[in-house]
Amino acid sequence: MKTKISKQKGSPWQLIYATSLPIMIFIIALVSCTKDQATTPTPETPNESITTANVSFSNFARQLFQSKCSSCHSVGSSASAKWTYTDLQSIRDHKARIQNAVLVAQTMPLGGTISDKEKELLAAWFERNMPEN
């Protein structure tokens, strides 16, 4: 009596490799790069010495805009068509739009938050005519 042995292409290790590789690639891609893990400047808690009377671009607003806005509103980014953050002048040029989105409608930052203290200081900075220093 003859035993019939089926011929399979490749070794068992090749089969394991062929099936597990796509799964591993999928898992690595899924967890390796998310927006939350992207390198963005983290805002420092507003210094207690910064008040509504002395808030400026250099002591508060620059860091706030870099940490909360620049990831989406920088040159070539997803929201750059609506407004592009580059410097103080770019904020001055879009003051009304920014005030409305952040302080009135509170729709920005999209997917992020601004503390009550940051909102208070930002509103004061706008009211003080956005001083640089």
List the keywords.
single chain; 133 residues; mainly alpha; elongated; transmembrane; C-type cytochrome; Cyt_c-like_dom_sf; transmembrane helix; membrane
Description of the structure:
The protein is mostly helical and 133 residues long. The protein has a domain at 57-74 and 82-127. Helix content is 46%, strand content 0%. The longest helix is centred in the N-terminal third of the chain and has 21 residues, at 12-32. The chain is elongated. The termini are far apart. Mean pLDDT is 79; it is low at 33-43. InterPro entries: Cyt_c-like_dom_sf (IPR036909). Keywords: Membrane, Transmembrane, Transmembrane helix.
**Low-pLDDT segments, ≥5 res:** 33-43
Share of helical residues: 40-55%
Main β-sheet: number of strands, strand sense, barrel status? none
Number of helices: 5
The count of DSSP E runs of length 2 or more, i.e. the number of strands, is: 0
Distance between the termini: 96 Å
H/E element order? HHHHH
**Morphology:** elongated
> C-alpha Rg, in Å?
26 Å
Strand content: under 5%
Mean pLDDT: 79
SS-based structural class?
Answer: mainly alpha
What's the quaternary structure here?
single chain
SSE topology sketch:
Layout: H1 12-32, H2 57-68, H3 88-93, H4 95-104, H5 116-127
Helix pairs in contact: 2-5, 4-5
Offer a quick outline of the entry:
The chain is mainly alpha-helical and 133 residues long. It has a domain at 57-74 and 82-127.
